[in-house]
Amino acid sequence: MFEFSDSLSAGDRRLRWGFLGGSVAPVAGAFLYNQGYRLSLLKCPILHLTGIPCPTCGMTRSFMAIARGDFSLAIQHHLLGPIVFAGFVGVAIHIAVELFTARRVRAFYGAVVGDRRFLLLCLITALGYHAWRLYRLASSGELYTAFAQSPLAHLLGSAANLT
Asked: What is the C-alpha separation between 31 and 102, in angstroms, rounded?
């Protein structure tokens, strides 16, 4: 199930500290944001410029709902939010164990996560979900309205008026 192998070199430990910070940051950020700490950088630039949500739009709100224990709201914000949140937590735990023991940990999930077919399935699932969300927004007319009110639409409209 789990196997401890060779020791981590100094370079491996530095790399793992970086990955640990990257995997803990979204989880800790969700908890801290719910406690009142705010960053103004949480706006999606793609959504802001185009009015069209990116594939990860709603993920931050989903993470914050998970941090509050509201899983149904988390799924409403982004269906894949709880899965990604659990992935960040799992990566953080795995890396923390490696850093604590100073040894590589080989686990049963390593082969699955490293399999190209699994990664392709994850990509297709994420893009398929995004396409479904865009289809629903387009069907309701919200997508057109949001784009029409976006800075990009105004810029394109200004450029069209100049010619």
From this structure: 28
